[in-house]
Structure formats: C-alpha cells, structure tokens
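Risk register update: the risk of archive-format incompatibility is retired. Evidence:
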Amino acid sequence: MGAYILRRLLLIIPTIVGIMAISFAVVQFAPGGPVEQAIADLTGQGKGAEDRLSGGGDLGGQNMAGADLDSKYRGAQGLDPDLVKRLEKQFGFDKPPLERFGKMMWDYIRFDFGESFFSNEKVLNLIKDRLPVSASLGVWILIFSYLISIPLGIKKAISDGSAFDVWTSGVIIIGYAVPSFLFGILLIVLFAGGSFYDWFPLRGLVSDNFADLTWYQKIGDYFWHLTLPLISLALSAFATTTLLTKNSFIDEIRKQYVVTARAKGLTDRQVLYRHVFRNAMLIIIAGFPGAFISAFFTGSLLIENIFSLDGLGRLGYFAVVKRDYPIVFATLFIFSLIGLVVGLISDLLYTWVDPRIDFEKRDV
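Archived output:
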C-alpha cells in the first residue's frame, strides 16, 4: 500500500501541471482580459485603470491622439501606446506566455498566489476570509446528507415496494426536481421577513454582535444563520445519496452470498451489517470525493448570492467576470489539489471497508 500511495502522490504533480496548463492556454484566447478591463475603466470613467498603475501620477496629460490602430486590445484605439504597455506590465502581460506560466507554477508550488488584479489584496487572504462560509455550507450539508440519507436508503432497500418506500421516493424526487435557489427564495418569503414570518436572518454567517455572545449563544447564532441555506441545499443532496444507497443495497441483497448467509442461520440484521453493508457502501465511498468537492466548493454559488453569504462561490464567480486571473488560477489550483488528495483518501477508505481490495496489484 505504501508504494501505491507514493505513486498516487507523485502522479498529483503532472496532473496539477496539466490542469493548470490547459486552463492557462484557454485563458490566452479568452476575450476581455484584465488589460482590456482596465482600458474599459479608463476610457469609460477616466480613473479606473489610472489608480491601479504602479507609480500613479496624472495621466490626464497623456497624448491620447497617438492612437495605436494595430493594438491587440479591444478599445485601445486612441490611447497612448506607452500607457497600454504600462498596463501590460502592471498585470504581467509584458512577458511571453511560457515565462508567465513557469513563474506562476513556481509561485504556486510555494503557495504564493500573489495579489488580486483589482482589489490589491493577497489572494490567499481573500480565500481565507471567505473559506468559513463555504466550509460551513459544504461540510454541514455533507454530514447531514450522509447521516440521514444512508439510513433512509437502507430502510427503503429493506422495505422495497412498500408504502413507506413509495411515498418517500415521491417526496425525494419532487424535492430533487425543485432547484435549490428557487426553494431558497420560497424560504425567504416564508420565514425571513418576506410576506409571512421573520424568524431567520437574511444576511451573513453570524450576527453583528457575535463577539459579545457567550459560547453557547455563538453556537445558536451560527446555526440560526445557517438553517435556511442548509435546508435549501439539502434537497438535491438527500435525493442523490438516498437513491444511490437504496439501489446499491438492493443489488447486494439479491446476490447468492446473502441467501447462503441466511441459510447458515444468520439473522437479517447480521446479514445486512456484517456482509451486505461492506459491499454496498463501496459505491457510496467511490462517490464521496465528487460529493465533497461539489458540496464544499461548487454547490453554493446561487445560495450564497440569495442569502448574501460572501463565500468562495461568489469570489470565484466575480473573479471570472472581472478576469481577475490570480484569483481564478489560485482557486483552480487549490480545488484541484484538494480533489486529487480526497480521491486518494477515497481509495484508502475502499481498503478499510473491504480489505480484499489490494491496489498494490493494480495499475494507478
């Protein structure tokens, strides 16, 4: 197992480099880069780009008549070519793409993600500031969905075809069909000061007086703010995990080894939890990395916007819109790295659930 883990860890390096290289290459052909964004600010408002230029100064006297008709940037016609070159240097686009990519990867290996193009703050600090929101949404919804969905899926598998199985399946399918953001809006209307009750807060992860509360009041305030967002996200998470668990257990229950175990005198509970559970849970464990990444990083953008939660979803979205490449590439690097590590952890869980699995005898 040690050799397998080492191979997987070493494989992370070329995988990360490949992901970043493909993304970097795509970005080179994407219109509306940061230089064009700065030019748009400059020509539209007169100050947006000037304030971001290193060295500052009054650019109002620049020769705007020296139009660069062959400029590669949209909207740069009419601007002094020297000004455009200063913008390129400000954003690091004065160097060849390969040199920029190499420097970026060298910095990322040392977890130096630089500064945001447009907020002049360190990218790592921006991610740290918003991580608690995404962590709260992702971790709790993952815990709740697994704690509720797995027992529910097992119960549905045991009572397959019963009235309980039918009506719970109906509720789950309807819940899955309702978009989480639409259900979130409904909860706001009903319980967050919309047209009916004003029971829950609408903004933020904690209250303004959070620092003045006692420890148990802080816990209550924290979950008070999380109640509606978690309920909104719970629908699709419950449906997927519950039905996957049910189908996996039904498939195992119908196999011959279950009949043999019952013939030997084992009770249904012993058969279920000693034999079926171990085999049926393999597919659930296989889906854990994807569920973790989805819930933790990508599943809460709309919910963050609806409930005014400043998390990683909103940070990444506005970075893409604004072409703030340091944030875009830093979040991509971190998310990819975490995804690959979680995938390795999933394989290790395979061997813990079923010791018969030996990755040493298989190719990576």
